[in-house]
Write a structure and sequence with these properties.
Distance between the termini: 60 Å
Order of helices and strands: HHHHHHHEEEEEEEHEEHEH
CATH topology of one domain: Leucine-rich repeat, LRR (right-handed beta-alpha superhelix)
Oligomer: single chain
CATH superfamily of one domain: Ribonuclease Inhibitor
CATH class of one domain: Alpha Beta
Strand order of the largest sheet: 1-2-3-4-5-6-7-8-9-10
Low-confidence stretches: 1-36, 66-71, 81-87, 98-103
Length: 360
């Protein structure tokens, strides 16, 4: 069913109710903002929030694997459970966002955590926070981004992990102010061309962080080529993905300094090292848990590498590190799980801190 038809159906069914609604009318952004949105995303802007969520919910439900049809009993049961859980959670979310604890709460709020709320669409009221810098929407069912988030000019970090997204919503293209984007544990297998419009992005995370526990998994079998057009990216996390090789054009990511391939067991390391040799400022690389006792000699080409994180089960790489790798990379700090040795956490430290540790 076309999503415009879904909008029309819900809008007609709820027109009487919405006409009596006391909700604040949402101002639709200028045409220059909405031109890049799909028709149904534009329609979402002009209708009450509860209907917005219903439409976004339909999108999510349509993307779910179909259950065996036993007179549609289980299918209806699943649908009803999703709808009930979403509406129950949304009431609390809307209330929390709409009720400031102080007169200047909107202005004071810089961090907003809406994770684990079972929501499908971001409430318009989120855009009331002019100084919002960090927004977490992880572990929900978000399938569409509210374009009004573009008005949060101070927003820098957006966490959309574990939402089961098959593709990125067009509304993301409007959030050109963000510099950190977390898309881990979804159902993505590619990044759209418009992704390169996010020119301020410095950190991109498309990993699978919770394999074995997560409901969703990204399935990037090829390096997303759109990233090679994003020269401002400094930290890139590609953990536990089935990527087999890195493109030569990764050298165009001239500011890339931190790269994690943790858990990428199928990657061709010799090819990867040859490609990374041309990345001018790569200072930290994580190759942990890739199932290797040794590394190809081509790692010597990473002449600017200051930190190599390479853990393996039961320190299976210990002999190679101590006998060979330290000779190949004499100016590189190697963290390989040796007892008593501190392990650098690449996500939790800034590039400046990582560089400082590498220079110590």
């Amino acid at each position: 069913m076309h999503y415009f038809f879904i909008f029309w159906l819900y809008y007609c069914c709820c027109s009487c109710q919405s006409a009596e609604s006391t909700s604040t009318v949402v101002e639709v952004p200028s045409p220059s903002i909405t031109d890049s949105l799909t028709a149904w995303e534009q329609n979402l802007l002009a209708i009450p929030e509860i209907i917005q969520d219903t439409i976004a919910q339909e999108l999510y439900i349509k993307s779910l694997p179909k259950l065996p049809d036993t007179k549609n009993f289980f299918g209806n049961l699943q649908l009803n459970a999703l709808q009930h859980g979403s509406r129950k959670s949304l009431r609390k979310v809307y209330q929390n966002i709409a009720t400031p604890y102080q007169n200047n709460a909107y202005e004071r709020t810089k961090h907003l955590d809406l994770s684990y709320q079972n929501i499908y669409y971001i409430p318009n009221k989120v855009a009331n926070y002019p100084n919002l810098r960090y927004l977490s929407l992880s572990n929900n069912r978000v399938q569409a981004l509210n374009p009004n988030l573009a008005s949060c000019k101070q927003l820098r970090k957006l966490d959309l992990s574990s939402n089961g997204m098959l593709q990125l919503p067009m509304g993301l293209s409007l959030l050109t102010q963000i510099d950190e984007l977390v898309l881990a544990d979804n159902r993505l297998n590619s990044l759209p061309n418009y992704f390169s419009n996010l020119t301020n992005l410095k950190t991109v995370d498309i990993s699978n962080l919770h394999t074995g526990m997560s409901e969703f998994y990204n399935n990037f079998t090829k390096f997303p080529m759109v990233l090679t057009r994003m020269s401002n990216v400094e930290k890139l996390f590609l953990e536990k993905l089935p990527i087999r090789s890195l493109p030569k054009s990764i050298q165009n990511m001239t500011k890339l300094q931190v790269l994690s391939l943790n858990g990428n067991r199928v990657i061709n390391l010799n090819q990867a090292f040859n490609a990374l040799a041309n990345v001018p400022d790569l200072i930290a690389l994580d190759l942990s848990f890739i199932g290797r006792k040794t590394l190809p000699q081509s790692i010597q080409k990473l002449k600017n590498l200051k930190i190599l994180v390479w853990h393996e089960e039961k320190q299976r790489n210990r002999a190679f590190v101590e006998e060979t790798l330290q000779k190949w990379l004499p100016n590189t700090k190697i963290y390989y799980g040796k007892k008593g040795m501190a392990t650098l956490f690449l996500r939790g430290n800034t590039v400046t801190t990582i560089r400082t540790i590498g220079n110590e």
